[in-house]
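[step 3/7] inverse_fold.run input=structure_tokens len=234
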């Protein structure tokens, strides 16, 4: 029979889990799974788990040597807690990519554009760097502010219908579990490999994306392959 997990092992599990949280939050790994504002809560939780483990270890030292009561054991299933910790230590899963984008919920837009919303003109410059959600929203409200301007947009490549492709990004409120996809159809150039991050410069195709259900389209003039950013979500 497999030996039951002792309180010593339980203490080790707390320590390892706390160490994983701290390691993720101190570096940039946590940005693959949660929003940037969660760095300090993760560090606090990790430190708390380690402190609890040390307190438990100290209480074991004070316990009688012949204390082998059932209370000093935890279920054998506690061994399974090592699995996610080992996964993060050895092979941290990557951020969400094109495979999930094809199945994810599209970022919600109002049913009808509100006449009360007045979008400011784009800033000076050529091309104008624009965030994905800003471009999608401007297209939804008619695209007037986009006309005649060259737009610079960054995202990763995902598949579109036929031979088409999208410049794509994920937006999230809290964590990767609530991620929604934002995408812009790219036309005029061949698609780079799926999941490759790109920086494109192009002009907005008038009328696209105005229905809130289909993505706006960018006629691409320049395309550059770039490294994925540290924070791949908006």
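[step 3/7] decode complete -> sequence:
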């Amino acid at each position: 029979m497999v030996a039951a997990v002792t309180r010593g092992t339980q203490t080790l599990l707390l320590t390892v889990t706390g160490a994983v949280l701290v390691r993720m939050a101190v570096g940039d790994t946590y940005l693959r799974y949660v929003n940037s504002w969660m760095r300090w809560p993760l560090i606090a939780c990790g430190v708390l788990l380690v402190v609890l483990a040390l307190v438990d270890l100290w209480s074991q030292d004070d316990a009688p040597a012949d204390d082998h009561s059932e209370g000093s054991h935890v279920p054998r299933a506690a061994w399974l807690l090592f699995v996610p910790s080992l996964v993060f230590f050895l092979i941290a899963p990557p951020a969400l990519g094109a495979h999930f984008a094809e199945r994810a919920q599209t970022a919600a837009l109002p049913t009808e554009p509100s006449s009360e919303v007045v979008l400011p003109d784009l800033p000076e410059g050529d091309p104008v760097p624009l965030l994905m959600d800003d471009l999608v929203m401007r297209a939804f409200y008619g695209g007037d502010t986009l006309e005649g301007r060259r737009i610079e947009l960054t995202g990763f490549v995902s598949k579109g219908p036929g031979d088409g492709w999208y410049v794509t990004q994920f937006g999230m409120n809290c964590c990767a579990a609530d991620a929604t996809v934002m995408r812009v159809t790219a036309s005029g150039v061949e698609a780079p490999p799926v999941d490759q991050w790109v920086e494109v410069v192009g002009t907005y195709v008038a009328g696209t994306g105005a229905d809130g259900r289909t993505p706006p389209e960018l006629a691409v003039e320049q395309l550059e392959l770039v490294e994925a950013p540290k924070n791949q979500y908006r």
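[step 4/7] annotate
Residues 100-225 form a domain with the OB fold (Dihydrolipoamide Acetyltransferase, E2P) fold (CATH 2.40.50).
Residues 39-62 form the longest helix (24 residues).
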